[in-house]
Design brief:
alpha+beta; five-stranded antiparallel β-sheet; 41% helix; 114 residues
Length: 114
């Protein structure tokens, strides 16, 4: 929550859309680089997969974690194990992803290897 509050409060200097997108990409890269061990390797692979298969998604940080937005709304995101005190890196989806299938569907996946 603190990281999200910092994202919202960060001073907004006038930037072009391209400059904002580049800054967001850089912040996502820095966040992934800060992950440790297997989480870092997996996050780098996931980032390459997402950006190459869905270039229309915009990389950005969301609550301090790497995320990908569609039309300004967060569609999917990563959570590293260390920050969340879990055994695995998680890759999750928000309702924007419209994964609805029947009355029950997964919204996140634990990833332990590639």
């Amino acid at each position: 929550m603190k990281e999200r509050a910092a994202e919202v409060r960060a001073p907004k200097k006038r930037m072009t859309k391209a400059e904002k997108a580049e800054q967001a990409r850089r912040e996502v890269g820095e966040k992934i680089a800060s992950f440790e061990g297997n989480d870092k390797v997996l996050a780098e692979k996931l980032h390459r997969i997402v950006t190459s298969t869905a270039p229309e998604l915009e990389p950005k940080t969301w609550y301090g974690m790497p995320a990908y937005a569609l039309d300004g709304k967060i569609l999917c995101f990563m959570q590293d194990a260390k920050k969340f005190g879990t055994r695995y890196l998680a890759f999750g989806f928000n309702d924007v992803a419209q994964l609805d299938e029947g009355t029950l569907w997964p919204t996140s996946f634990a990833i332990t290897g590639s």
